[in-house]
Design a protein that fits this description.
The protein is α+β, with helices and mostly antiparallel strands and 573 residues long. Helices cover 38% and strands 21% of the residues. The chain contains 20 helices and 22 strands. The chain is globular.
Length: 573
Amino acid sequence: MESCSIILVVDAGSSSVRCISYELLDSRSCRSRSEEEVSTSSQSPIKAIEGMSYSVPMMSVSPNTGYIRIHEVLDAIDLCVDEVLRLLRQTITDESYNITALGFSTFVMNLVGVDEFGQPMGDKATLSYACNRADVLDTCSRIDRTLSPDTKQSLYQKTGAPLHPAYALPQLLAFYDTKDSDNAHLVEKVHQWKSISSICLSRWTGQSHTQIPISYSEASWTGLLNFRSCTWNDEAMSILEKSCNLKVLPSLSDFDRGDILADGISQHSHDGTNNSYWTRWPELRQSRFFLGIGDGAAANIGSKCGSLSSRDDSKRRIAVTIGTSAAARLCLPLEIDTYHNYSDTVVPFGLFCYRVDKSTLLLGGALTDGGSIIEWARSLLNLQSTEYFTECLEKVATMYGDRCSSSSPGVTMAPFLSGERSTGFRVGANGCISGITRETSSIDIVYACLESVVLRLCAVIKLLTGVSSGGDGEYILVASGNALENNHLWRQMLADCCGIDIVVDSDANEGTSRGVALLVANKLCNERSLKETLVVENKSVPDLKAKNYWNKASLAQESLIEAVSSTWCGNGT
């Protein structure tokens, strides 16, 4: 391999931790090109280096409790970096490479309580998107009862997040107002809340944890950030300060903080002790580090759905991801409003609105259970064998064709095994299957799981298409996430349900890490925008004959959810 500049990307996901190497293409000339040249470039500035990656499969977050297995996650991150550096040393023996930068992506939301020395206080001092604990549900319901409708709407429109257990406000209040004696000692010892990436960057660079902020991207997923001004939201702070000192919240920044992260690993830590990473990772001594990017935001960028200017034959691109969870998202341009002259951007109920960076918003909706619902069904129905599951999917595909032809109803499912986020955000929601008879088989259940996720994603996509163009214009769905990329039937069902083409792009493997690498490369090369052409590997076109079936299926699911929602603990209906 010729001399090259390399970007390392750490991707701390909910089901695995990875480190992947990307070559920064033409790194010298990209710095010298004019602004006009870089802003109109259609060539990707990065390329994944084959074989130079490492992954640790793991369950990073405990279901329902939402506790992060923080020490296991941090160990896995370090191991992944160790192994990738080892692979680079073995493969490029003449040292003709330079690790220019390291970027970071994390599952979001994540917040970790650390002590005065920056050490994590353990799993029970962690907050995450997957929280569905009873104490947090109760806290969320209590907040909902005490706030006026106008205050709740104001919170939603400024933070882009509804009042829900998946966000930090109810989780922090439950933590600080705990009556559990086992947890009470943690309250006194938590010095500050940090993101996983900011903890790693503090440890690696040797800087104090108080010097490392969290990015606007990660902060916006907490539901505490005013996404318009990129400051902690006033209304949220007035609620939170009744239970804790607001100094426990970290400082904020865009993901590019060259003033504190441009100098790589220091030989000595801030307290004067030797920094072990200086000798462990000598290749990173001069590397530029970047703050974390939320995995959903990175996935959009990596899927070539980075902005409204990203077009495919004049079609707006919506990124649809099914991994462990599921989401549909669209990027919108919006600079930080430092003067609080708020834009006309309105977040419709059912969607979230987060920050990618200081110039871009991410509008979308998410399901806590996406691919995880299939894993649940495989375990429940004893379909762990690849052979048995493949045979089951073949029968599901045949069943789908038959049902579309006859528009006949089957088993209906509300896929809220871990609670509901988009589009209802109903507190205390859980899953439900209706329509079971003596003839119901494992194939019916797997079919219902696939269908239920498609219907919820379609509800999100309908909201997105209405917001971004006032109901006009054409769209194309860009698939990402292993569960969707590797399942043609699921993609066809989604295309039929939405009535929109869905494509798999051959360039966009590992979309999350690729998105981080692109964002980092754009900063390094001073690029303003990158309009990438889709390289379509597979395309699913809607079958118009299925429209009637999906209309009936959607009505059946909505009716089921409406019927059972009054039984959910914490739901105000």
